[in-house]
Structure formats: C-alpha cells, structure tokens
Write a structure and sequence with these properties.
This protein is of the alpha/beta class. The protein contains 23 helices and 20 strands. The strands form 4 sheets. Strands 3-2-4-5-7-6 form a 6-stranded parallel β-sheet, sandwiched between helices. Strands 11-10-9-12-13-14 form a 6-stranded parallel β-sheet, with helices on both faces. It has a 6-stranded parallel β-sheet with strand order 16-15-17-18-20-19, sandwiched between helices.
Length: about 550
C-alpha cells in the first residue's frame, strides 16, 4: 500500500483546507515539510529573512483575504521569533496558523540538550494562541490541522499553533489509513439564538434614536454589506472602531468614522436610546478608558461570549458570527419605510470633527488627504506606530473594507511585513506601507523578500532620525531628557536600490503625491524616504 511522510500529510491537508500560500523560513527540523512543498508547487512558499516577518505576512494575508494565513517555522529559536507577531494577531483577532516543527518525540521537554530544543514550546504559544496542539502520529495530522482551522473559522478568529515532532514529519504512514480531508473542506459559522434575535429586533424597531457601533468583527466576518443594509433600514448613524474602519464607506451618509472620543460623538452616544454594537470589545482607547456613557439598551453581537458584558453591561447579548447574526436581524426587523436619521446630517457632524482634527494637525492631515487622493478607492494602507499613523487612526477616510490595517496591539515594525503579506493576498490591489525610520528597520532585511518574490508595495517612510513619538513624550513628561531615542540611519533609498528595488528621497513633503503615483505604477517595491520632522503637539 502507498505510504506518505508526515511532511506530505501536512501539505496535502493544507491543500484540502484551501491553503494556496504559506510563509516561512526553512530550518533543519522542518525539512520534511519543505520536501513535500517541493513536490506540491501549487502551494506557494514565500521565504523570508526573519521568522517574525513570516508571521506578520500571514497576518496581512489573513486580514485582506478573510482566510487563515499560514506560516511555517522551525523548532526553538525560529518559533520563538514569531512571538510578537502572534501576540498582535491574537489581540486583533486575526486567524493565523503557526505550523512548526518540534524535536523528536522522545526528547520533548527533557532538557537533554538536543539541537534547538525549546523550553516548553507548546506552553510558550499557549499564551499567544486560542488553541494549540502537538502531533505525535502521522495519522493525527489531518484531524489536528482541521481542528486548528475550525477553531479559527467557526469560532473567534484568533491564531492557533500546531507543532509536529520531526520524527513524525519523517515517519511514513499507510496512506489508506490516514483520514484525508475532502478538498475545499469548509465550516459553518455560528448563529445566535433565534428568540434572542427576535427580542433584539423589537428593541431596534422601537428605538427612536438608534446608533450602530461597528468593530473589527464586522471586517473579519465579511459582514459589511449586512451592516450597511441594517444601518440604512434603521437610519442609524454608524461609528466604527479602528479595526472596523471601512466596514461602512467613510463617504456614506450615515458614516461617522472612528472618533469616539470627540465631544460630538460623546453627545450623540449619550442622546441615543439604543446601541447596536457588532464585533467589538469596547477597548480603552475607543471608550475613554470606559468613561463614555452608553445607552441602557445595548445590543452586543459577538462571536466570543466572553466579550459580551465584559466592559459594558449588555441588555441583549447575541452570540454568533457577525455576518450570520446581522442577517438574522435583517430577517426579523420590521421598521417603517419612511424613517429618517434622527441625528440629522451625519456628514455635517463628520465635517465638524474633521475640522477640529485639521486645526490640531494641519501638516499631518494634509499629508493624509494627499495620500487618500493619490491611491485608488480600494487601495490597502498598512500603518506602523508612527506619527502619521496616529493621525490616520483619528480621521483617515477609509472607503472600503479590509483596506485599513492597523496594529491594535501597538506593535512597532508591523507595517512593512504585513504589507508584503497583504500584497500576496491581494496582488491586483495597490498596497502602501506607512512607517517611520525606527519601525521600518525591524524588518529591513525583508526588502530581500520583496525583491526575490516580486512583491510590489509602496513604502512611505517618514524619517526624523528618531523614535519620534517617544522623543515627544520625553519632552512632555521627562523634562526633555532625550535618551535612547535618537537613531543613526542608512540611506534608505540607496539601500532599496542595492536590493534591486526603487528608492526615492524627498527633503520634505513636497512632491509626495507624484512620488507615490510613480511608485504605484512601478513593477517592484519602492521606498520613498521623506526626510522631515513633525511638530510636537502643543509646541
């Protein structure tokens, strides 16, 4: 009877689960997986220069496609290098499978000193994932990987980890005894209890001043069409979180954007008699450290039951996938067809908020508006922890879903590798990475990945030769004691050229739009280095 190796079982199972791309850095313990990938070129492997980049690329791929991203890492130090990225995926509820090798089965956790032996690798990633497992038999590989995917797709989409001992990857099993998955294996999404949906629909139908709060769960679920339909039926203004940006187009008449701290938004929430919150955990930043008063009639939709009522008491909790539950509400909701928005002209409110933002950050906002005017409507913008990104999180006009990728975890170095993964997931779309000189250098070697695999992104790099945000904080709170914040940088544009890519230098913001347009038309990654400092707020 035909036999398969554990590595072959891994790749065949990934194919059955619909995986077409994996990201990784090859290592000795994972070689059986790579040999199987060699024999299955239909599963594309993107090789990186640092394991953290592999995990971030899988994250970016997942955010823009809605499908789980997969990274492959080798045992011990290689696996540990993915920790920051996995933490980011966990915090932002992104489905990433970290598939890694492990030392031989009889050596696991024995501290014998075998090559790359980790200390409790499974325990290390238990803290960074919602589910993880170790495989010790070839026959268990399909079922374990299927469970990892089911956990990410049919439950809250957080990262998972599966490790396979290297002797199992090398071992051979009877192919007929391996429980292979059918190609295109899919999973049902959970729906809310119908009677609870009916009760919530009655509350929304009776509400005279409803508001909708859309979080990242709407984006992850692909529920934006249902969100817009329900909001239009209710004629309810829609407030989006940073992770939910674009789930209703910013230029839609009911869209308020994502400025929950603004006084007009606070007034609107306090004046509402019902709030429909979908796929949000009401984080501290969005709620003023939970000081905002929300309506007593709070209908909270979330796939994770632990989120409902955790930060604000919910009068009605609907546990289920955002898209499925919104469809249920649409089916149950009976409202008059002549409703008008109780908040009046929402676009005027939005304009008032924008005006206050422009007053505080005229230079930053002018750059962001120029960026918005230059890229296409569905361009994917990926933001690092840099000053322009902070302003973007206040008032950037996001026009399409899954186009505003921002690290809610606050991870420095997020943007460039995540942008590479986003471009792999959506190769026909424009992808722009916005970063600072400090954050970009955390993934600098993966300019080689962009060059080797022809991944074409535009990098908009603002260079002030410092960790500028931290330098400002030292000015504000630490008597201007600048310590460990000044940077010595390379010539970023020249460095890009040495990798065979394009490099452009701007001595200030003039010409940014033209440089960006040329970068988006180029056939390779372009690094646009903008040498400038942003004025410290209040200075």
């Amino acid at each position: 009877m035909p036999e398969v190796t554990g590595g072959e079982a891994v790749v065949r199972t990934l194919k059955a689960l619909g995986v077409d791309t994996v990201f990784g850095l090859i290592g000795v313990h994972a070689l059986p997986i790579y040999d199987a990938l060699y024999q299955h070129p239909e599963v594309r492997h993107i090789g990186v220069r640092h394991e953290q980049t592999a995990a971030f690329m899988a994250d970016g791929y997942a955010r823009v496609t809605g499908r789980p991203g997969v990274c492959i890492t080798t045992t011990g130090p290689g696996a540990a290098n993915t920790a920051a990225a996995m933490g980011t995926s966990w915090w932002d509820s992104v489905p990433v499978l970290n598939l890694m090798s492990q030392v031989p089965s009889d050596m696991v956790d024995r501290n014998k000193g075998v090559l790359h032996e980790p200390k409790d690798q499974l325990g290390m990633f238990r803290a960074l994932t919602k589910w993880n497992a170790r495989v010790t038999r070839v026959e268990d590989i399909p079922g374990t990987l299927q469970q990892a995917f089911r956990t990410m797709v049919a439950e809250r989409p957080r990262p998972t980890q599966v490790e396979v001992c290297t002797d199992v990857l090398n071992a051979r099993g009877d192919a007929e005894s391996v429980p292979w998955l059918a190609e295109g294996t899919a999973f049902e999404r959970p729906r809310a209890e119908p009677n609870l949906v009916d009760e919530a629909a009655v509350v929304l139908a009776r509400a005279e001043r409803p508001v909708v709060w859309a979080g990242g769960g709407v984006s992850r679920s692909g529920a934006w069409q249902e969100l817009v339909r329900l909001s239009e039926r209710l004629q309810a203004p829609v407030l989006t979180t940073v992770q939910g940006a674009g789930t209703i187009p910013y230029d839609h008449p009911l869209a308020l954007g994502f400025r929950p701290g603004d006084r007009r938004i606070t007034e609107l929430l306090e004046g509402a008699d019902a709030l429909l919150a979908v796929g949000t955990k009401f984080v501290a930043r969005a709620t003023g450290d939970w000081t905002h008063r929300l309506p007593r009639q709070l209908i909270h939709v979330d796939i994770d039951p632990e989120e409902i009522g955790k930060n604000y008491p919910a009068s009605h909790g609907l546990v289920g996938d955002a898209r499925e539950v919104l469809r249920q509400l649409l089916g149950a909701l009976a409202v008059p067809g002549n409703r008008t928005c109780w908040a009046g002209d929402v676009s005027a409110v939005r304009g008032e908020i924008e005006g206050r933002v422009r007053e505080r950050g005229a230079l930053e906002m002018s750059l962001l508006y120029e960026l918005r005017d230059t890229v296409e409507r569905d361009a994917i913008l990926v933001w690092d922890q840099t000053k322009p990104a902070y302003w973007a999180a206040r008032s950037f006009p996001v026009l399409e879903p899954r186009t505003f990728l921002y690290p809610g975890y606050g991870t420095l170095g997020f943007a460039f590798p995540t942008a590479l993964g986003a471009k792999v997931g959506q190769p026909e779309r424009q992808v722009v990475c916005v970063c600072g000189d400090g954050g970009f250098q955390l993934a600098l070697p993966d300019l080689a990945t962009a060059a080797q695999f022809g991944i074409n992104v535009a990098v908009l790099l603002f260079n002030d030769n410092a960790f500028g945000i931290l330098k400002d904080l030292q000015d504000l709170s630490w008597q201007g004691h600048h310590y460990a914040v000044d940077l010595v940088n390379p010539d970023f544009a020249r460095l890009a050229e040495l990798y065979g890519l394009r490099g452009v230098v701007l001595e200030g913001p003039e010409g940014l739009g033209r440089a960006l347009r040329e970068a988006l038309q180029a056939d390779c990654t372009t690094v646009i280095e903008v040498r400038m400092e942003f004025r410290r707020p209040g200075a």
